[in-house]
Amino acid sequence: DDALLNVLKRERFHSLDCLNALAAGANPNAHEGTDAWTPLHWAANQDHGAAISLLVQAGARVDVANSDGRT
To answer: Distance between CA 38 and CA 26 in Å, rounded?
Structure first.
């Protein structure tokens, strides 16, 4: 799960890196620390449409709020 979060937290990443992490079994609903950001939060924060699509197709929940209440 850390592998997927680490990919998405990079300033620039390729959607293939996201796909590879998911294929390796990464949890699309993992969250980290006190901010409770999920991979979907990170992808949306970077406006990365391809990663968002991959995450949703992999079962990422779109209704999970982070510590600020944002989904």
So the answer is: 12
